[in-house]
Amino acid sequence: MFDKIMVAIDKAEITNKLLDATVEIAHNKQTQITLVNVSQDYVSNGMTYVPENFLEDILNEMEKASWEQLHQAKSKLNSAGINPETIHLKGDPGYEILNYARETEQQLIIIGSRGLRGVKGMMLGSVSHKVSQLSSCPVLIVH
Q1: Among 32, 90, 99, 108, who pairs with 41 as Cys (CB 3.0-4.6 Å)?
Q2: What is the C-alpha to C-alpha distance for residues 58 and 55, in angstroms, rounded to an integer?
Q3: Tell me, what's the pLDDT at 123?
């Protein structure tokens, strides 16, 4: 049914559920799977006493952690017989996921829910909510 599926991974606690859903959907099909992780492209310097190279180091560590998450997720899918592409993006996660999905004509986005509810969800927003509302393709939100 879906030939191109994008899986937006984030935190490890939900990633396994996302990958399990991906295996179930893509199993025994010629489906192109793309694993995507987005890290921030800036850290605001609100404290004047923090050296600029420290903030740069934080961004580098975030990117390194992003690639590690992608590598671990790819290994799990490889063990299930699926060879996904891995993409690391920088910026606002919701925007980057939507933009990449649109540019590459994805047919399904699989994304996790952090479970933000009530006031916290209203104030902080939710990447999965934003993606589900603005996506031009179906979105599967895994809890």
Answers
A1: 90
A2: 5
A3: 47
Which contacts (CB < 8 Å, 24+ apart) does range 25-28 have? 25/108, 25/110, 25/140, 26/2, 26/82, 27/80
The DSSP code for 6 is E
Q: Coil, helix or strand for 74?
A: helix
**Terminal C-alpha separation, the chain:** 22
Q: Which stretches of the chain score pLDDT less than 50?
A: 123-124
Domains and CATH numbers, the chain: 4-142 (3.40.50.620)
> What's the pLDDT score for residue 137?
97
Residue 126 pLDDT: 86
- Say if CB 23 and CB 34 are below 8 A apart: no
Q: How far apart are CA 95 and CA 70, in angstroms?
A: 19
- pLDDT at position 34 is 97
